[in-house]
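Quick one, tokens below. Sequence please?
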């Protein structure tokens, strides 16, 4: 059965609490609208900017609005979602597993928190552990779909707002996570300042939205004809525009890697053979020079890794997510009840100021 055809006349809610979630959910929205469904958006918290909503995108402002509209499914690129929303809850992840650990030393990406009915996983290295959790816990289903925000990486469009045909230099994209312990930003300032002065590469730079303001200002001050600092809620055009990335342990490096492009990392948490990892600031430039040559062994390692991370290059992950959601809605399979976490329920309701049962 073609489950995409079941989209017609169904309602799908996009639930976001960070600005980067717009770019994650919009490809799903496009697949829904193309197949006759309806979409609404719910924006939670002060971290998400409502001005990023497009004129044609429709917003629900209150929990009462959500209950009145009665979505069949809610998509969320978050770890948590209110369980008291109508319809099923679908987890689509806010990034890849970059090896980050929680305070107890556990992998923070590979957790089920009692909120979702369906997880749409990105590739085998996400699917296998979540399938194991599915068998153990029994209150959700797992379907491997690929990750929707990467669809545009494979749409065949090469020009972006950051393309400069008149500048033939290789393009370096520098990204960093906000964690002081993991971020390259406090540690590589002198090296990046040097890169911006030599003009050997065209440099694009983008930081995580939670990066401390003083660091952002410090790097913005380096902007010149060789380095452009960019603030955006949509990193995909940046990823398409660069030849090589310099990063740390941010999951955005994995989004870059699936294009089969090299990444140099500084003090990465999980430095495997698909990365060129360095721990000495003075060796970063040498590693970047090597990366720009696209070494054969490195490229083979990247391909092998991508087959586990995200093997899909057809740009159809969004359609697979919507189809998997519809299949779940039409299924008669019975799942176990979700665990009732009274502390989480209280915190969620307090954050939303919603106390009806």
């Amino acid at each position: 059965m073609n489950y995409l055809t079941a989209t017609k006349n169904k309602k799908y809610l996009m639930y976001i609490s960070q600005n980067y979630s717009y770019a994650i959910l919009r490809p799903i929205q496009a697949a829904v609208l193309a197949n006759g469904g309806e979409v609404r958006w719910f924006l939670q918290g002060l971290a998400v900017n409502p001005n990023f909503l497009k004129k044609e995108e429709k917003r629900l402002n209150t929990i009462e609005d959500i209950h009145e509209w009665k979505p069949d499914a809610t998509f969320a690129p978050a770890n948590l979602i209110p369980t008291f929303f109508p319809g099923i809850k679908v987890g689509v992840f806010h990034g890849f597993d970059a090896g980050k650990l929680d305070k107890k030393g556990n992998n923070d990406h590979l957790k089920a928190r009692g909120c979702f009915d369906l997880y749409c996983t990105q590739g085998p290295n996400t699917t296998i552990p979540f399938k194991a959790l599915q068998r153990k816990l029994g209150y959700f289903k797992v379907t491997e779909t690929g990750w929707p925000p990467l669809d545009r990486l494979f749409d065949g469009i090469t020009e972006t707002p950051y393309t400069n045909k008149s500048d033939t230099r290789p393009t370096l994209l520098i990204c960093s996570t906000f964690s002081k312990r993991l971020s390259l930003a406090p540690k590589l300032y002198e090296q990046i300042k040097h890169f911006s002065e030599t003009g050997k590469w065209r440099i694009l730079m983008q930081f995580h939205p939670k990066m401390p303001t003083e660091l952002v200002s410090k790097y913005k001050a380096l902007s010149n004809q060789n380095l452009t600092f960019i603030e955006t809620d949509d990193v995909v055009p940046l990823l398409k525009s660069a030849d090589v990335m310099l990063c740390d342990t941010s999951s955005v490096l994995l989004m870059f890697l699936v294009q089969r492009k090299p990444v140099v990392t500084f003090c990465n948490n999980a430095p495997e053979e698909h990365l060129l990892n360095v721990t000495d600031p003075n060796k970063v430039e040498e590693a970047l020079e090597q990366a720009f040559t696209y070494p054969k062994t490195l490229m083979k390692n990247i391909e092998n890794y991508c087959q586990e991370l995200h093997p899909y290059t057809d740009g159809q992950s969004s359609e697979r997510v919507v189809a998997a959601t519809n299949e779940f809605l039409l299924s008669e399979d019975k799942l176990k009840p979700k665990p009732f976490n009274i502390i989480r329920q209280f915190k969620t309701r307090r954050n939303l100021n919603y106390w009806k049962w």
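The chain has a mean pLDDT of 92. Residues 153 and 240 are 7 Å apart (CA to CA).
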